[in-house]
Amino acid sequence: RMLSMYCALQARSSFIKSVFSSCFALADELKRTRALVDDYQSDPTNVIRIRERLSSHTSAVTVLYEIQQFILESLESIDPSLEAMMPSSSIKQGALYDSAAKKLYDLLDLEGTLKRSRRRVIDLQKVVSACFNDLEALRDMSQVIGSTRKLQINQMIEGTTKNLEDAFRAQARNSTTLEVTQVILSGSLAFDILDRLTGQYLSYTEIRWANESIQPYLVNEPMVWFTLNVIMWTILGGGIIYLMRHLAYMNLSVETKKLLLNKPIHVKRWRRFVASRNMESIACKEEKGERVTKYGWIEPVNVIKWQGSSPKIEVTCDERYGYILSSVILINKRTCKLTADECWRIFWHDNFEVKNIYDPTRNEFNAETGKRVDTSAQASDDEDEDAAAPAFGASMWQKSGLSSSFSRKSKHDIDDDGSDSDEYIGRDFTYEGFVAERNDAASRL
After folding, report:
1. How far is CA 414 from CA 65, 402, 423, in A?
2. How far apart are CA 427 and CA 425, in angstroms?
3. Is-above-0.85 flag for pTM?
4. Fewer CB under 10 Å: which end of the chain, C or N?
């Protein structure tokens, strides 16, 4: 028992040495982090690295503190007295203070070794506490850095806001000046229109109907011609001002609907859909393995479908993993009778559901693991089938008997549209395309 106790204490001593080494290594890492904190302005990525290092330091300090507590508990449960070392049979026989056992006990010095181990554990607790205090100081310094950066951002925002206010005031002055200029130019236009209606623009020549009907009653009378010009100017200038304000009024009422989707999509079909739209803006962001792209466009004009003007749509998607993340739809309430929610439902149904851009199979989850079911192989097979198999309209078009006559095109037809019959047969048919092409073929026959 004495030997086993001595080996256990020596093992704990070696383990305490390794824990001390880890504490000293952590102290060195904290010094390096402090150097980054002191010089955070030299590199814009230092703030991110400081946060990552602080997170790793926190986990390391927590582990070291728990290890120190475990070692302390294990040492407190040890009884190094000679009575505990001797077996119970020897105690009953009266051989408690056997000379050989006493000599071995004094040689191993178990009580002294245990006391030294406990003192080292207490020293280890002090070192861990010092590391924890350094970590808290670094956290406070990082918070000061964050506060400083926020203050700088707020100052920049305040300066930008002041610039925007100045720009708005300048724009208001410019709009007022533009309106006055339009009124002045409308006066010149009104005078020219009145001159051409009355024939006064050719005053250097004699116009019989103007001399007989206009000049005696309108021109020769005092203030009559001037009054007519002012009235014409007022009518035309007021009409232009009313038109400009009406157009501004029609563009003021905008309804915006923002949606958080996070739905899986077929990337190839989505890219084909994007290629069919006239994109106004495309913004791409790549960060940490993600490739997020934001598209913005206005839907094609369809007064019957949208019951007015077409909505503007912005879609954010992750094309690497095939997910549509979010969307924003904007409509003009004074030129479109539908609401933003109705427009979005029409857009989603006509494009994502009818054209099978939305992939509902990837929304299936495994009941045991809670993860999404991997359907990448099935999705690739579906893409191959879409590319190989003809669409519904194409199969009916081939069964109708018009395919042979319609596919045999003359050289003149090939020269006109710049495509041959093989390229025509390989096109992606739809039902609407099939109806139009069937009618066209029937008219040719």
Report:
1. 82, 18, 11
2. 6
3. no
4. C
